[in-house]
């Protein structure tokens, strides 16, 4: 066993899994790579709607050459059989692999530990690496399994002086084209997108993905309101109503009131703050009681990127 080599291939699998998000919904976005003597024999990621599984695709590509190879997969191969096809642990055993290295154990009680145990019973060296990059690639799936809620990202575009809209509520356009294109990419990575009633009335947003080739990845639209939602929207009276719907990744693009509601409820995992060099002087602030950096207390800057002339700051909950 070469831990450095294992980590390298798991990192590659974690990056590959991005191709499955969010189209794999309701299944997790998993990726797998079959390797023998440093040569890739097959690779795959979870298909649209959850099938085929990543391992099935990678093993099919490798064919008989998979015998004696190593399968790297971001999530423990499934062990349950539900009539939609063989379990991935069965496929891996039939392929007569030498090793299976899973990034993390599957929290699904139907598989948790059972997939790896099945492989060991078949004479395959099977292990969990507890790889941080694989865990990060499955963050939404893990959170939904643990709490019933999706991993939730709050996205706000704000001026240099901390406002998300002018006093009358108007906000088009605070950021430039490059930042807006990146925001559309974030939409394409979400199962669902949410705004409040005020944003709907003020902006009448379509909330679709308008990037060439990614239009089909527009997320399901949610509206936080005590009234009815327009056609094509799902109305939610309270943030807690999101639980149990199977969403793994939620993007909030609502206004200050919606942002405050989710922050106060402790339901936000990430902040995406697109900061423009523009100055309003007065308007609707992004956050109440923000610190000197314009961000609520308890958040840690994880990354900063430039989309000239704007800057994106990514925050996660501080530890």
Give a topology summary:
Elements: H1 3-16, E1 31-36, E2 39-45, H2 54-62, E3 70-75, H3 88-94, E4 99-104, H4 114-121, E5 125-128, H5 132-137, H6 139-147, E6 151-158, E7 163-165, H7 177-188, E8 192-196, H8 197-203, E9 220-224, E10 234-236, E11 249-252, H9 256-264, E12 270-275, E13 284-285, E14 299-307, E15 310-317
Terminal-residue CA separation: 33 Å
User: What low-confidence regions span 5 or more consecutive residues with pLDDT below 50?
Assistant: none
Share of helical residues: 25-40%
Count the beta strands.
15
Note the main sheet.
Answer: 8 strands, mixed
Treating each run of at least 4 consecutive H or I residues as one helix, how many helices?
9
**Portion in beta strands:** 25-35%
SS-based structural class?
alpha/beta
Write down the secondary-structure element order.
HEEHEHEHEHHEEHEHEEEHEEEE
> C-alpha Rg, in Å?
22 Å
The global form is elongated
Mean of residue pLDDT values: 93
The largest beta-sheet arranges its strands as 10-9-8-11-6-12-15-14
